[in-house]
Amino acid sequence: MKKHIPNFITCLNLFSGCVALYFIFQNELVYASYLVGLAAVFDFLDGMVARVLGAYSEIGKQLDSLADVISFGVVPGAMMFMLLKRAEGGLFLPELLPFAGFIITVFSALRLAKFNIDTRQTTSFIGLPTPACAIFVASLPLILANGELMHFAVILNQLVLLATTLILSLLLVAELPLFALKFTNLTWADNSVRFIFVGLSVILLALLNFAAIPLIIVLYIVLSIFKKQTA
Hints:
Elements: H1 5-25, H2 29-53, H3 58-86, H4 103-117, E1 124-126, H5 130-146, H6 149-155, H7 158-173, E2 177-179, H8 188-208, H9 212-230
Antiparallel strand pairs: 1-2
């Protein structure tokens, strides 16, 4: 039975993504954002449980990618589509522009396919992980729901959203080494960058609430680059 527990958790990730899509279709982006966060929790737990139980399997690996392409590929693409529909800016082809949001979906699928065949990504990542990309996008409706007029002016701008879409998509497939939040022990020497990241993330969340989430993703990338240069 224990070998099926991680797969069950992965299915909860997939189910959360499917329900998030329902709320996106209802234009309830805040609920969808919370479900992206829940899917990310399940995505973290399935790997952790698999390691603890020693319940690795090929079907689990494939199921994980299939779930991720929905929860962290289709969902953020659809969310960006809805945000672009609401945005202002007067860019060309306003009726077609929202479909650019699905570029995130395409690049997320490419990133997951690369991950499955890339032997370099066993203890770290090459390119932005799809959950991080999805959480970045999902934070935008939460910032709008809890933010000020300035947030609307910045986020609901076609150029800003299009640039965000393209940058995130490129980061997904970039040859950029990024550390993984996997603690094999609790020593400072082996985990200093992880401790720094977690500590600064907690401070940012306490100070800025949901507005901290994009900054935390940027911090993750910056610390990874710093770690690579000092290694």
